[in-house]
User: Which sequence fits this backbone?
């Protein structure tokens, strides 16, 4: 601390999710002597999206070849696997199939295969006989897409391991220190009154990344619209599936539809919902309710609903229906021959997707978004599959925006 009472650091990272920590990890690997601080408002790492996601390591066949998601998902899958094996972390080689409900969905299935091959991902179209050999309870219309490299991990375990690695290497974490405001330049103040000055500031604040960015003159055309995701866990006898099962998605929006996930410890769950949330940390009840924030989000969502921008009205109505457990399980039942719907009786821990909206077009942003200059960098749309992509994606951020 210098004479002005500032914590002077080389690199200040805001946010201790997987993206913020991966940025710190990349910087520390290049500059072992650098003073790197990670600022986190919670009591530990991964309190939000990084610790509440499904744990799926995606393969990379959903995304168009010109996207950052396509660029980093395949390599991120491999690097995260290697990290788990090297550190003795759990990994379940679940694999994955994407199934079609009818003839109209077959072209999209082949489009996913084409995207996967273009992206260098191992995928293949299989027929119903081959699907039955993978899992006889899964059903599809004529064809399905098979992804052998999809797997699941425990995101809390992974993020905890990254935190421990960084601490061992001298990265300092300031927990319970939430970003409050920018004073000037790269000098910021926390809600506790602490002041930090850094040569480089990296904003990986997740649900509040757009707000932090605006203090630095960025995110002018973007705002975050939160969507709540919840899974239903199966507690009955004999798991209904042995592999991850997904429907053919609507390729025009970033949501993948209700699907089966086999977790790292072998449980099965279905979900998630994608319900528009009323405030950014609208997890349960009135916890973390913020009136001004809620008013702004509801105003934005009301406009999207009335205009039906990107099909928001039909999306919102459909997602609210999923709170009816019978309806929710019926969506999963369409992908299997037999399902004990009563066995899905335990709601999981809610998560919030920090989905970026382009306010100039009223369209959801599909790809990762980074803005910044020589002093500050702002990671604005680190949504799924950001957990899978974390290591190669943050290397790209450091190469192109930080250095």
Assistant:
């Amino acid at each position: 601390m210098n004479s002005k009472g500032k914590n002077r650091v080389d690199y200040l990272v805001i946010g201790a999710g997987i993206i913020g920590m991966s940025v710190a990890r990349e910087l520390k690997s290049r500059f072992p002597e650098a003073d790197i601080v990670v600022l986190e408002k919670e009591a530990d790492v991964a309190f939000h999206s990084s610790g509440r996601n499904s744990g799926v390591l995606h393969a990379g066949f959903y995304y168009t070849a010109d996207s950052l998601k396509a660029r980093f998902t395949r390599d991120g899958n491999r690097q995260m696997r290697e990290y788990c094996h090297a550190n003795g972390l759990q990994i379940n080689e679940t694999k994955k199939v994407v199934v079609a409900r009818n003839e109209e969905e077959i072209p999209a299935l082949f489009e996913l295969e084409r995207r996967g091959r273009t992206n260098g991902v191992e995928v293949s179209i299989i027929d119903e006989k081959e699907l039955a050999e993978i899992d006889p309870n899964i059903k599809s219309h004529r064809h399905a897409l098979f992804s052998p490299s999809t797997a699941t991990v425990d995101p809390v375990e992974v993020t905890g391991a990254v935190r421990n690695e960084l601490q061992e290497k001298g990265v300092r974490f300031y927990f319970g220190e939430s970003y409050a405001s920018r004073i000037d330049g790269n000098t910021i103040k926390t809600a506790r009154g602490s002041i930090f000055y850094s040569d480089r500031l990296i904003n990986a604040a997740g649900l509040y990344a757009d707000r932090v960015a605006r203090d630095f003159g960025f995110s002018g055309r973007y705002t975050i619209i939160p969507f709540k995701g919840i899974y239903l866990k199966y507690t009955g006898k004999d798991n209904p599936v042995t592999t991850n099962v997904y429907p053919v998605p609507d390729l025009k929006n970033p949501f993948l539809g209700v699907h089966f996930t086999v977790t790292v410890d072998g449980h099965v769950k279905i979900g998630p919902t994608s319900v528009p949330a009323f405030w950014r940390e609208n997890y349960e009840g009135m916890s973390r309710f913020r009136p001004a924030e809620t008013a702004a989000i509801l105003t934005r969502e009301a406009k999207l609903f009335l205009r039906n921008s990107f099909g928001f009205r039909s999306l919102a109505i459909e997602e609210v229906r999923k709170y009816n457990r019978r309806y929710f399980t019926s969506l999963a039942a369409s992908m299997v021959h037999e399902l004990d719907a009563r066995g899905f009786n335990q709601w999981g821990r809610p998560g919030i997707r920090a989905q970026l909206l382009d306010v100039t077009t009223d369209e959801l942003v599909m790809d990762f978004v980074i803005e910044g200059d020589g002093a500050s960098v702002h990671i604005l749309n680190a949504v799924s599959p950001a957990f899978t992509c974390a290591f190669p994606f943050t290397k790209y951020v450091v190469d192109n925006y930080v250095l």
Summary: The mean pLDDT is 96. The radius of gyration is 21 Å.
